[in-house]
Queue: 2 jobs
Job 1
Amino acid sequence: MAVDFEPRIVGFLCNWCSYAGADMAGTSRITYPPNIRIIRVPCSGRVDPLLIVKSFQLGADGVLVAGCHPGDCHYTEGNYYARRRFALLRPFLDYLGVEKERFGVEWVSASEGKRWSQVVSSFTEEVRKLGPRKSAMPQEAVL
Amino acid sequence: MNLTEEVGTKARELLENNVVDCVIGYERATDGVSARPLFVYQPEETDKLIFDQTCTHNLAKYLLDRKDKVTGIVVKPCDSRAINLLLSEHQIERDKVFIIGVVCPGIVETGWNKTSEKLQAACELCQQHTPVIYDHLVGEPPISEPAPEAYPDVAGMEAQSAAERRAFWEEQFSRCIRCYACRQVCPGCYCGECFVERLDPLWVGIRIAAGENEMWNTMRAFHLAGRCIGCYQCEQVCPVNIPLSLLNRKLEKETLEAFNFQAGIDAETPAPFSTFEKDEKIGIGE
Amino acid sequence: MARIGVFVCHCGTNIAGTVDIPTVLEAARQMPMVTLAEESKYTCSDPGQAAIRDAIVENRLNRVVIAACSPRMHENTFRRTVAAAGLNPYLLEIANLREHCSWVHGDGAKAATEKAIELIRMAVAKVARHEELFPKQLPITKRTLIIGGGISGIQAALDVAGAGHEVVLLEREPTIGGRMAQLDKTFPTLDCSSCILTPKMVDVAQHPNITLRTYAEVKEVKGFVGNFEVSILQKARKVDHEKCTGCGTCWQKCPEMVGSEFDLGLGKRPAVYIPFPQAVPPKPVIDTEHCRYIKYLQFMEEGREGKPPPQCRICEKLCPTSAIDWEQEDEIIEEKFGAIIVATGYKPFDPKVYTELGSDRYPDVITGLELERMMSASGPTGGEVTRPSNGAHPKEVVFLTCIGSRDEQRGRTYCSKVCCMYIAKHAIMFKEHDPEVQCYVFYMDVRAVSKDYEEFYKRAQESGATYIRGKASAIRQEDDKLIVRGEDTLLGEMIEIPADLVVLAIGMEHSPGSADLAQALKISYDTNELFIEAHPKLRPVETMSDGVFLAGACVGPRDIPESVASGSAAAAKVAALFSQDFLTTDPMVSTIDAMKCSGCLLCQAVCPFNAIDTQVLRDGRTVSVVNESLCKGCGLCVAACRFGAANLRGFTQQQLLAEVTSLWQ
C-alpha cells in the first residue's frame, strides 16, 4: 500500500445542490486535495450504475456521487431513487472486492461549501489508505 | 398419480379442449437420463411429457417468444416467480398463459449422460416449494411452512476479506468466455439490445479480458437486482462453471434486507427501483 | 468530424495565478479533435466574447469548450456568444477551472495545472458528442379553469379575468360563495361576511371574461400545460337557466321541505331551491332526490305496486317563464384550457368521533359553523342564538378548542389555524349581544398570529370571556344543563361547568373527493388529502404539474386574507404563463428509442413529472414515449432503463461515458 500514491477519484455531482456546494467551496477559497474529477449531472438520480462500474473498471480508485439532501431534490424524488440504487450497488461492489469505502454517496447542499471540502478530503484520504484499486488491464477498444 | 402422469393428463386436457395452442414442458433427452424442453402441439404427443428431478430448465423464458399466442406451461416454484416477474414488467399477459405449477421435489445435479442423487446447491437452500402462481397445481404442497430465506453461501463469502474476495472473483471472471449462455437462459434477460452489445456507448469492450468480463458479469447481475427469481439456470449452463448464483444471491439478500422484497412472489408489489420511502434508512448518505 | 475550439480564460489572476496557462494550452492542442486552443484574460468580457466569435467563424469551428469559471455562472452567456457566431448554442461545454480547480487547489500549482488539463480533456470528450438542440414552441390556450367557487376561486377568477383572459369558474354546489357565505362575521374586523363577499360574487357573475358554471364538476382531464382538455359534468338542474328570471315563485310555493345543507341541517329548504338568498346565480335547482314529481316519475318508471305518490308540479304550473324542464339530463361539456387553478376549499371536521362530547346526542352541543348559521341574520333562527333543545337564549356558553385538530389519535395532527380566532370572535359577539352571557373557553394554546389578531384576542379576554387552559374530557346532561367536565391545568384542578350551550371549535379538513380530483389532475396530495405545493416555502401556489396551480384551504387550513392572497398569487402565475405567445420548451429533455424500449414502464414509474406516456406502435408493441413539454430533464428514466432506450439530451449516456473514459486516455 503505497502512501505516496495519488488516488484517481471520479465524482458525479448534481447540478442543483452538490455541484453548487462545490462551487461555494471555491468561492470561499477552501482548499481540498486535487484528486477528484467532477462530472456534472442534472440529478443524482441520473447516475447510471453502469457509469459507476465502468469508472472502477477503467481504473478509478474511488467514485464519489453527491446529491441533494433527501427531501430537497430539485426534481423532488431523484435522490430517493439514487439512494435505492446505490443501497444495492455499494454492498454488491464491496462483495466483488471493491471496498465500500471506495464508493461514496454524500448529500451536500448548495450552501455546504465547507462540508464539500471536508467530504472530499476525508474521502480522498480513505481511498489513499486503501491503496490503488489494482484494476484490470486498461481496455483498448475505447472510442 | 405421479407428477409425470398428472402433468401429462392436464396437458392433454388443455390441448384437447383448445384452451391453449401449445404446452411447453419437459421430455427425456436422447441420453436417456437428463431432461430437455418439449413443445407439445397435439394431444397425442403429451405422452412424451415428464416431470422429475432432472427437469432443471426454466421454461418461462419461452413465453417471451409466444406473446400473442395462448400457451400452457409447466413450471416449478422458481419458474413461476419468473412468470410473475414478466407479468409485472408487462412482457406477457395473464390471460395468454395457462400455468401448470408443480410442487417441486428439488432438482438434482444433472447434465448430459449424468446421473446423480445429490440436489443442486440452490435447491438445498430453496425455501419455496410450492409455485406462487398457477392455474392448476400438480403435487401435494408441503404441510410445514418454509423457514425464512437464509444465505449461508453469501455469508461465507462476506466473511472473507476484500482482498480475498477480489482475488476470488478475478479468478472466476478470468475464465469467462463471454458466450452469454447465462443471459440467453435467463427469463429476466430479454433486452432487445443488451448493454453488452452496444457499441455506442461502448460499455463493454469486445476483448475477452479480465476487465471486460468483470464489467459484463457485474452489470448483468446488477440489472437483475430485485429481479432475479432464483432459478440459477445461469450457473447451470455456464460452460466454465462460474458460480453465478453467488453473485445474484448477494443482491437477493441485500434486496430482502433493505426493502423486504423478493422478486416474483406476486405480480403487483412494486419493484424496489420503481418506488421509495422518504425516510428509509438503507445505509446510504447517513 | 468535430472541430473543437478550446478557449482558456485567465479570469484575471483567478485562474492564471495558479494554473499554468501555456502548459494547459499546449496540452489542449494535442487533444483529439481540437482544432485550436486560445487564451483570454476575461472570456466573458465583450472583447473576450468577440474573440471567441471570430475564432469560431475563421476556423470553421463546430464545437466550443470554454475553460473558465463554473457553468452555473456563465453557461447562458457563452451560449449566446456561440449563437451569435452562427453555431447552435448547445454545441458548447464549459470546464470549471476556477471554482473547482484554481480556487480550491491554490496551494498546489502543479496539481492544479494537471487537473485543469484533465477537466478540459473531459469537456472536449463530452462536447465532441454534443448535438444541435432546438427548443420547441407550443401553442397556449389562454383560457383558465378555476375549480371551486369559494373566496379563493372567486378572487383568482376576478384577477385572471382582470388580466384580460377568459375564465371558467366551476363550482359543484348550486351557488358560489363557499364557506365564507356561511359565516356571519369575520375576524378581526367583524365585517359582515356576506357583505364583503357578495359584491365579489356579483362581480364574477357580471364579468365579461368569466363564465360561471355552477352545479358542475370536473370529470376528466387530459393534456398538459397550455393544452389541457377537460370534460366537465354539468349536472341537470331541471331548471332552464336561460329562461329562469330568479323570481322565486317556485321555491316559495314548493311543498316539500328538507334539511338545508347550507344551514347544516338547522333549518329547512324546499326541493326546488337556492341555497341562500344572495346565491349566485340566483336561480334554483331541483333536488331530484326529494322532489315529489321526480319520485312520482321514478315510481311510474319502475312500475311499482300500490298508489303512486302525488304529482305536484306546482313549480311548473306557477313558473311565469316556463323554465322548469323535467327532460333536462346531465351533460358532458368538453373545453380546452391553458391553465387550471384548484381552489376546492375545505370541509368542517365532524366531531362525532369524540363520543364523550356528545355532539350527536345532545342538541345543545353544536359546532362553530352551526353557531355561525344561528348568528347569521338570514339564518335558520333569524340571527337569534337559541338553545336547539328548548329555544331559550343561552346564558352560559362553553367553547372547546382544538376539536379534530392537534390530535394524533382521533383527528388530524395539524393545527387548523383559525379556530382560536373564531372562538374569540364568538365570545366577543355573545357579550356584545347580551352582557349577561358567561363565556368559558377551554384552550390548549391561543394562536393569534396575523395582523390585529393578538389585539382581537385581548378584546375577547377583556369582554369578560374566561379562558381556561385545559381540555374537556366529558359532557353529560343533568336536568336541562350540560355539565362540561374538564381540567384547569394552571390551577391543577378538575372543574365542571354547567352550560346551556357548548360550541366545539372544529377544525378544517380536505373537501370530499380531493384524492380523486388530484388523480385526475395528476397532482400530489398528502396523508391528510391536502394538495401538495411544488415547494412549501418558495412555490406555495404551484404544483409539480406545470400549469396546475393551487389556491386557498385545499392546500392546508388558512384564514380569509391568506386565501385571497393565494388566489391572487395563483392568478399572477397564470397571467405570467399567458404573457407569452408560445410555450418554449427546454430542449434538454429525455428521449426514448422505441426500437429499444420493451414497454416495462419502469421509466413511467420513476418520472416525478408524469412526463412519460405510452404509445402503441404499428407492430402492436406498447412502448414509452416522453412528453417533451412536461419533461424537466432530470434523467431518472435514463438511469432506470436497463434497455438503453432512454437517453437525456445534453447529458447523454455517450457524453457522460466519454467524460469518464477520457480520464484514462
Note: Chain C touches chain A through 46 residues (CB under 8 Å).
Job 2
Amino acid sequence: MDHDELLELTGDNNAAVPEAVSRRGFFRLGAAGAAGFALSRTLRAQDKPAEHKPPAQQPADIKTNVDEVRAIPRTKDSMPGLFPGRVVKVETGQAVADGRIDAGRVEKAVARGMAELTGESDPARAWALFVKPQDIVGIKINPIGGKTISTKPEVVDAVIAGLLAAGVPKSNSVIWDRRLHQMPDAGFTAERFPGVALAGTEMRGPNNDFYDEAGELWAKDNIDRQAKFYFADLEMPYNKNLLAAMLNQGKESYFTKVVTQKVTKIINVPILKNSGGTATLCLKNLAYGALSNTSRLHKIWAKSVAEPNGFPYLRDKAVLNIVDALQAQYDKGPGPNPQFVYDAGLMMFGTDPVAVDAVAHEYLVKVRVEKGVQQFDNARNREYLDLAAGLGLGVAARDKITLREIALG
Amino acid sequence: MSAPTAAAVLAAGFWLAAQGTAPSPLLPPASELPGGWMAASPPEIYEREGLYGYINGGSEIFLQYDFRRVDVGRYRKDEAGRTKDITLDVFRMGSDREAFGIFSIQRQGGEQSLDLGGAPNWVSPSQASLAAGPVFVNLVGAETSAEDMAEFLRLVGKRLSDAGHRPFRPEGHPGPWTGLPRKDLQEDTLRYLQGPLAAQGESEILAAPFWGFGSGTAGASARYSPDGRKLVLLEFPAEPAALLEPVRGVFAQYLTEVRAEGSVLEGRTAAGQVFLFGQRGRRAALVFGKKDGHGARALLAETLK
C-alpha cells in the first residue's frame, strides 16, 4: 500500500477492511471521533525557543507564474461558468436558529437557489447543467472552524441530493478539504456520509503522526509534483511541524491530486467569514484548499487567493458555488471566534466565484459597519476580486453583477 | 476518582510513557479537570515557525504581537446525550504587554468577567479569554455553557497564578494608554495596538503606511461613555513630520465634508458620524464620534491639551 491510498477515505468501501491492520480503517476510526490517542506523540515544533524576528513587511510586487496559464485554452466549463455575473442570495428564514440547522429548510433553500440561478424548476434538470452521471464530483467544504463555523453537513446533504437527481451516484462524490483530520470535528465522517468518499491532502498516518517511522510525510504523495504548479517568488523556512501542514518548502505550491487527478467537477461549498476587512469564501476556499506550501502565500494574499483559480484544475472544474452562510463570522476571522459568529440564515448561489465573492464582501462589510467593527470599505480589500476578474474568472464590478434576492418564509 | 477521570489519567500516562516528554506545564492535567471532562487528544504545541500549522489564516496578527508558542488542549464531556467540546489555547507571547495586547483586541467590551485576581478576562457560553503575565488564554467551546467555560477559565487562571504570572496593569507601565483621558473611559474596551493588523482592525484609516505601525508606532484605543465614542491614541518612536496633509488625503478617500480647523482635521462618514484627527509632538489622536460631534471634539481637546 503506498501513500496515495491515504488520499481517500471511503464510507461503505471501508467496511470490509480489517481495522486493526488497515490504514483506511484507522482513518475511519478517526472520522468517527474515536481515533486512538494513546498511540500518538505530542506535537512539538522545536525543543528550543524560537528566535524572535521582527514582523516582515509585505513585499511590494512578488512575481508569480500566473501568466503561463493564461494561454491554456479554456473549456465550456471554465470560470465564470454558465452564468457570469449572476448571483442568487436566499434568505432561508428559520433554516438556522441558535446554531441549530433545519435540514428540511436547507433542502428547500438549495432547491430554490438552484432554480433561480438556472431557470430550471426541476432539480434534476438544474443540476444536470453542471454535472453528468459519469463525473467524479468533488464537494469542497471548509471544516477548519470545527463546530464553531464550518460548512454544515446539512448543506452537503442537499448538494448530494442534487447530484443524485442529476444521476451522479454517491460513489462518484468526494467530500474534500486540505485537512482531512479536521473534517470529523465539523461533522464529516464516513458514518455520517455512507457511500461518499472523504478526501484530504494533509493527513496523519496509522501512528497518528504526520510522519511515518522513516521520517517521511504520510501525505507527501498527495500533492501532484508532475502537474503545473503555482510559483511565487518568495519562500519561508518551515520546521518539521509546519512542514507537515505545508507538505513542501520552496517557491512552488503544488496542487492536490484531488483536483489534478481524482475529480472531474468541483462543487464549491465555502462558508462566509471575514479576514480583516474583507470576506473570504469562494476563491480562497478553492485556492488555499487545493495548494500546498501556503504559509508563505499570506504575504501576497490578494494574488494568492485569485491566481491559483486561473489554473485549469480549478478554473475548468469548479462549476458551481453554493455558499453556506447559515452562520457567518463578521470579525476576528478567518480563525473561528464564536464571539463574532451569528445566525445569518443566508445561502448564495452562482457559477461565477468572483461575483459571488463580490456580493458577499459587500454584505459582510455592511454587517461589520453595523456592528461597529469597521467604519467603511477599503478598495484594497477588494483587490483580489479585481485580480481574479483580470484573469477572466468572473465579474468583480458590482454594477455589472445581477443579484437576485429571495426570501423564504 | 470517577471512571472517566481515571481513564483520562491512564491515557495521559500512556502518552507520556510513549513520548518520553513532560506534559505541557500550562495545560491542566487530567487530575484537575472539572467533573466529567476528559482530554480528547494529546496536547499539541506549536512554536513560532510552526504557528501556520495551527492557525493557517490569522497567524500574522499573533506574530505581530511577538507570538512564541501555543499549547493546545482539547477536552470533551458527554452530558445528557450531548458531547461538549472545549479547545484551550495557551499562547505565550514575548512580554506581558503583548499578551495583554492580543487579549485586548479580541474583546468588544461589555462582556461578563470573573474575579481572577485582577487578570483581565471575559467569558461567554462558547468562548472565554484571559491574560496574565506573558500568557494569553483563549477557550472555544461547542455545546458548552457559560458555567463550563468559567470553570475552565478559573482552572487555567489559577495555574497561571501559581506559576507566578501576574496580571498586566497598563496604568502601572509606560505606553500609549497613559495618554488616554481617564474620565468616562470604559475600562473593558481598552486595547493596546501593536503592528499593522491590529491598527487596521481599529480603522481602515490606520492602514496607510505613513503611520509606521510595524516600525515602532504603537497605539491604544478605548470607548468613552456615555455615547460610545472611540479614541485611538498613537505614539510614534520619534516626532514625525506634520501628518495633517497625509491624513487629509486618507480622510478624503473615505469621508465627506473634510476640513481643517487649525491643527484639527474633521470629516464625516456616509452615515454622518464625525471623525477627528489631531497631533501633538510624538502623539496623535483619532476620535470616531457620533453625528453631533460635540463629545468627539471635547475628547480630542482633552487628549491633546
Note: Chain A touches chain B through 57 residues (CB under 8 Å).
